[in-house]
């Protein structure tokens, strides 16, 4: 999975860096009235000084956001982000602060 993640980072964002596997989790959530998503998610993190070069065929939109602003958005507009992200962000935010370069709690 690590090799595929590095490859997709290059293909989707035009970035090359070392990624570290943080953890894996499984989720299942309803998807509209069509059924549900039932997936395994591998969470990776890495640091990079390059500017992202998003592939328009893969990514519709990117933006920079601080961790605090992201917390606020998740509280105020939880449906604005994917279900898997809303599940993983609290753990990444608290358990992997050092990896993200965030100050200690």
Question: What is the topology?
Answer:
Layout: H1 2-13, E1 20-31, E2 35-45, H2 67-76, H3 83-95, H4 97-100
Number of strands: 2
Helix content: 25-40%
Largest sheet: 2 strands, antiparallel
Find the CATH topology: Nucleoside Triphosphate Pyrophosphohydrolase
- Tell me what portion of residues adopts beta-strand conformation: 15-25%
Total discrete domains:
1
The CATH architecture classification is Alpha-Beta Complex
Q: Total number of helical segments?
A: 4
Write the H/E string, N to C: HEEHHH
Major β-sheet strand ordering: 1-2
What number is the mean pLDDT?
Answer: 89
Helix/strand-derived category reads: alpha+beta
Which stretches are poorly predicted, pLDDT < 50 over at least 5 residues? none
Question: What overall geometry do the principal axes of the alpha carbons give?
Answer: globular
For this structure, what is the CATH class?
Alpha Beta
Gap between N and C termini, in Å? 31 Å
CA gyration radius, whole angstroms: 15 Å
Q: Looking at this structure, what is the CATH superfamily? A: Nucleoside Triphosphate Pyrophosphohydrolase
């Amino acid at each position: 999975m690590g090799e595929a993640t590095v490859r997709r980072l290059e293909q989707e964002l035009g970035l090359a860096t070392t990624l570290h596997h943080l953890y894996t989790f499984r989720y299942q959530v309803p998807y509209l009235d069509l059924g549900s998503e039932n997936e395994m998610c591998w969470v990776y993190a890495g640091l990079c000084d390059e500017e992202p070069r998003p592939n328009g065929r893969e990514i519709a939109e990117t933006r920079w956001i601080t961790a605090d602003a992201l917390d606020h958005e998740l509280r105020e507009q939880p449906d604005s982000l994917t279900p898997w992200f809303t599940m993983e962000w609290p753990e990444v935010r608290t358990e992997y602060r050092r990896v993200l370069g965030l100050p200690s709690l």
